[in-house]
Amino acid sequence: MDLRDSPEDQERSLICFYKAQKTEWASPLNCKLEGDAAVGEGVNRFFLSKSMTLLQFGFHINFGNTNITRMFEGEPDHLTPSTAQFLLESDMFLVAGRMMGHSFLHSGPCISGLSPAITHVLFGGSPETTTIQIEDCPDIDIRTTIQLLEGNAELTEQEEKAVFDLALSWDLPGVTKSNRKWLHERLLFHAVISRTSRQVKQLRKGLKETMVWPFLKERADIIPTFLPRTSEAALNFHDCVADPGGGREDEDEDECCLEDKCRVAGYLRIFFEKASCAQLKALLQFWTGWELLPSELTLKVVSSDFPKSATCFETLRLPAHYHDYEAFVTDIQACLNSIDTGFGLV
Q1: How many angstroms separate the CA atoms of 315 and 159, rounded?
Q2: Is residue 133, in this structure, part of any structural domain at all?
Q3: What is the DSSP string of 31-50?
Q4: Are 228 and 248 contained in the same domain?
Q5: How far apart, in whole angstroms, are the C-alpha atoms of residue 185 and residue 243?
Q6: What's the longest Cα–Cα distance across the chain?
Q7: Within a domain: residue 154?
Q8: How far apart are CA 101 and CA 107, in angstroms?
Q9: Reduced to 3 states, what is the DSSP secondary structure of residue 28?
Q10: Helix or strand (DSSP H, E) at 215
């Protein structure tokens, strides 16, 4: 991947990598970025983080008259594979399965918020026994039509026509008093499970090629770790940041007084409290190379102009010159905006 290329070309390079056949995905990972001299574990983390971020939030490649091409659609904790035909024809869900398995093999980030119904089917559960919620239907128009069948209220002529048109498009009968509940279940099943069955098959094939699927099939207790809920992916920095006042300073770093260290560390803790989840994940990517919390993060307050990080050593170096929180946040936000551009070692 060449960081001098446009974001679209970078993403194409990444997709080409995961479309390669007969790849040993469990082999040691050693990434190099064209246009950036950075090396080490931090580069591997950057690559895996970028891959999973694109999978979670969408590619910037225009596959079908859209600025963002999302692989998964819907609400948090109810995400389902996109039903876009061009993604299926391009084997993009096979690519997605390889990306998910590859990241898991190398202790990288995971996709969060996938629908439990999709997860159940993905790992061999019977589609007929899965529990489907109305929130699992990402198409609001279809969801609204299906919801008309809830309860026993009499449908208007317009509502009955909307249900009939949807049912007819999926080879199901129109609604009657005797089949109302059954039709509600079948429409919801088709909207969530049937329409995504081929996508799930491609995902499963990709996971099998990385040898992750057989492992998770036998160890179902690890599936929640592999596909966590959105709430479980929340970050808590407070317990893993080492005291910036402790430890020995590196020889190439100027000594700072304890007062400076405590003041700047205090600004960082205020940022932890006020920042959004997206900002915290971006900070962790800047700090370590990806959005996974390690057992301990190292913070150093040093004499410098701007914040810097050593991702391989999970160390954040903050300048000691800050005397107000606003200036601190401005520089931190500038750092967060740079996480997709590499390491700056050109």
Answers
A1: 59
A2: no
A3: ---BT----SHHHHHHHHHH
A4: no
A5: 55
A6: 81
A7: yes
A8: 10
A9: coil
A10: helix 212-218
Predicted TM-score (pTM) of this structure:
0.78
Give how many domains the chain has, as a whole number. Answer: 3
2 lies in a domain?
no
Residue 275's CATH number: 3.30.2410.10
Q: State the amino acid at position 202 in one-letter form.
A: Q
Q: Are 48 and 106 in contact (CB under 8 A)?
A: yes
DSSP-derived letter for residue 90 is T
Tell me which residue range forms the domain holding 259: 234-346
User: Taking the CA atoms of the chain, what radius of gyration do you get in angstroms?
Assistant: 24
* Alpha-carbon dihedral angle through residues 104, 109, 111, 117, given to the nearest 10 degrees: 50
Reading the chain (346 residues) residue by residue, the pLDDT tens digits are: 777 788 888 899 999 999 998 889 888 888 888 877 777 788 888 889 889 999 998 998 876 667 788 999 999 999 999 999 989 999 999 999 999 999 999 989 899 999 999 999 999 999 999 999 999 999 999 999 999 999 888 999 999 999 999 999 999 999 898 999 999 999 999 999 999 999 999 999 999 999 999 999 899 999 999 999 887 666 666 556 666 654 444 544 566 788 888 899 899 989 988 888 888 888 888 888 887 778 788 888 988 888 988 888 888 999 999 999 999 999 999 888 887 776 654 3
The CATH number given to whatever domain includes residue 123 is: 3.90.1750.10
Please indicate, yes or no, if residue 132 is contained in any of the structural domains: no
Co-location of 205 and 267 in the same domain: no
104 and 19 housed in the same domain = yes
